[in-house]
Amino acid sequence: MKTPTSPFPEVPYYLGLYPVVDSLEWVRRLLQAGVKTLQLRIKNLPDAEVEPAIIDAIALGREYQARLFINDYWRLAVKHQAYGIHLGQEDLDTTDLLAIHAAGLRLGVSTHDDAELARAVSVRPSYIALGHIFPTQTKEMPSAPQGLEELARHIKQLNGAFPTVAIGGISLERVQSVMACGVGSVAVVSAITKAHDWRAATEELLQLCPYRDDNHAQR
Ligand SMILES: Cc1ncc(COP(=O)(O)OP(=O)(O)O)c(N)n1
Ligand SMILES: Cc1ncsc1CCOP(=O)(O)O
Ligand SMILES: [Mg+2]
């Protein structure tokens, strides 16, 4: 893993509500609903198949002045100048971080434990994701949920040096307890996409997890 000699571009500490969705349709709906930070997470398709959705999602993100992160497809994200990219720990071994950095894209990195946190810190990404916090039905996880105590411990350990995003099993009912740990953002999938009324759920989540543009309030 070749690491850039300077940090990845900064993002606000309080990125706010951060829905992670798997289609252009969801990207459009959520932007129209006022979401300002989101991720397009399409899994395991050939680049050529996913490229049209990535191009359109990036264009929509720009139109709504939102922070749209692309999961996994870093080459396409660089090619089409996305706002940012989200990568997992395994991705770090196979990704050209120097190319992402040179292109000026923001980078978010997943972490699940102390060792992964240390590795993420060494990359100096734009934000660090911490999870999974609670059991989740959305993704098969090899590790146990971290829980709130571990989340709070990791956030304290980072001491405001990086914006943080909590992910995994975060329901509407759990958001406040997650925010109380000092995290800057809450990433959700099913709390929105499986909600009985996704608009109402998004509205409530936006209120509970506000975006703040005062860069690095924690630093
Ligand atoms: C905000 C956020 N946090 C964590 C993840 C998980 O990313 P990754 O470990 O790369 O796993 P996949 O999402 O690719 O299955 C995420 N996507 N977003
Ligand atoms: C992509 C991902 N990475 C860690 S947990 C997760 C899924 C989160 O989905 P949900 O909010 O439905 O638990
Ligand atoms: Mg990934």
UniProtKB/TrEMBL annotation:
It catalyses: 4-methyl-5-(2-phosphooxyethyl)-thiazole + 4-amino-2-methyl-5-(diphosphooxymethyl)pyrimidine + H(+) = thiamine phosphate + diphosphate; 2-[(2R,5Z)-2-carboxy-4-methylthiazol-5(2H)-ylidene]ethyl phosphate + 4-amino-2-methyl-5-(diphosphooxymethyl)pyrimidine + 2 H(+) = thiamine phosphate + CO2 + diphosphate; 2-(2-carboxy-4-methylthiazol-5-yl)ethyl phosphate + 4-amino-2-methyl-5-(diphosphooxymethyl)pyrimidine + 2 H(+) = thiamine phosphate + CO2 + diphosphate. The keyword Magnesium applies. GO terms for biological process: thiamine biosynthetic process; thiamine diphosphate biosynthetic process. Binds 1 Mg(2+) ion per subunit. It comes from the Bacteria. Keywords: Magnesium, Metal-binding, Thiamine biosynthesis, Transferase. The keyword Transferase applies. It is an enzyme of class 2 (transferase). Pathway: Cofactor biosynthesis; thiamine diphosphate biosynthesis; thiamine phosphate from 4-amino-2-methyl-5-diphosphomethylpyrimidine and 4-methyl-5-(2-phosphoethyl)-thiazole: step 1/1. Its EC number is 2.5.1.3. GO terms for molecular function: magnesium ion binding; thiamine-phosphate diphosphorylase activity. PROSITE patterns: PIPLC_X_DOMAIN (PS50007). InterPro entries: Aldolase_TIM, ThiamineP_synth_sf, ThiamineP_synth_TenI, TMP_synthase. 4-amino-2-methyl-5-(diphosphooxymethyl)pyrimidine binds at Q39, L40, R41, I42, K43, N71, S110, K139. Pfam families: TMP-TENI. 2-[(2R,5Z)-2-carboxy-4-methylthiazol-5(2H)-ylidene]ethyl phosphate binds at T136, Q137, T138, G169, V189, S190. Its cofactor is Mg(2+). One of its GO terms (cellular component) is cytoplasm. Belongs to the thiamine-phosphate synthase family. This is Thiamine-phosphate synthase. It comes from Rouxiella silvae. The lineage of its organism: Bacteria, Pseudomonadati, Pseudomonadota, Gammaproteobacteria, Enterobacterales.
